[in-house]
Design goal:
mainly alpha, Cytochrome Bc1 Complex, Chain D, domain 2, 2 domains, elongated, Cyt_c-like_dom_sf, translocase, signal, EC 7.1.1.8, cell membrane
Length: about 260
């Protein structure tokens, strides 16, 4: 009996020591890291965001609710410097980023804990591999050109709002904007524009606004599309025709007098 008791105690001690000193599983490590990120993100949120969006992200009269916006919206808004906003207005402009990427990730982790939403896309989702530039151009002209213009140069909207230029914008942020629909932009979830569609649009924008863009010749008029081309035709083309008509009429009248 004594030997059995000693054996059981030895097994118990061995199991306890193993539980204490054994390395934590990857799942446990990930959970711990996520919990730490949420805690740090909550601290950052309390200092820089709670005054407008509420202590629990529920929103106030000065800022919308952040419950359910997801990590993608946080990464876009904070990663482009639009948030924190300097002052209210018709539209919050892009400006210098004041948080590091690590801090942005922590804020995103905290906001995500408030409610499920779109996750930050991976490079495989917005990278050029497997993209169809021609299809992207077709999709862009159908869904985006009305506001951002035909090559993403941007354009004015109503009541002081505007569609910003997409030239030089990080592909990840373009993808996130399509996911979340910031400010005046509608959102394009995967049910509307699939991951492949978004990848194609980004590839098209990179092609038309990239450093290696090749002009097809002639004056591109800012790449603004048929509106500027039509205006050019009306002002200069029609003006030239009127001038020629006046000159011909004057010459004809002078010939008749002589």
């Amino acid at each position: 009996m004594a030997a059995l008791v000693v054996l059981l105690l030895a097994l118990a001690c061995t199991g306890g020591l193993y539980a204490v000193f054994a390395p934590a599983s990857k799942a446990q490590a990930d959970d711990t890291a996520q919990s730490l990120a949420i805690d740090e993100g909550k601290k950052l949120y309390s200092v820089g965001c709670a005054s407008c969006h509420g202590t629990g992200g529920q929103g106030t009269t000065d800022g919308p609710s952040l419950v359910g916006v997801g990590a993608s919206a946080v990464d876009f808004q904070v990663g482009t410097g639009r948030m924190p906003a300097q002052q209210p207005g018709a539209q919050v402009p892009k400006k210098k980023v004041i948080y590091t990427q690590a801090e942005i990730d922590q804020l995103a982790a905290y906001i995500s804990s408030l409610g499920a939403g779109p996750a930050v896309p991976s490079k495989a989702q917005y990278g050029p591999d497997g993209a169809d530039i021609a299809k992207g151009g077709e999709l862009f002209r159908t869904n985006c050109a009305q506001c951002h213009n035909f090559t993403g140069k941007g354009g004015a909207l109503t009541h002081g709002k505007y569609a910003p230029s997409l030239e030089g914008v990080d592909p990840k942020h373009i993808y996130e904007a399509m996911q979340t629909g910031p400010q005046n932009m509608p959102s394009f979830p995967d049910t509307t524009l699939s991951e492949q569609n978004k990848k194609d649009i980004i590839a098209y924008l990179n092609a038309v606004n990239g450093d290696e863009t090749v002009s097809n010749g002639g004056l591109e008029l800012g790449g603004l599309g048929p509106v500027s081309e039509g205006l050019f035709a009306w002002i200069f083309g029609l003006g030239a025709l009127i001038a020629v008509a006046v000159w011909v009429a004057a010459r004809t009248a002078k010939a008749k007098k002589s």
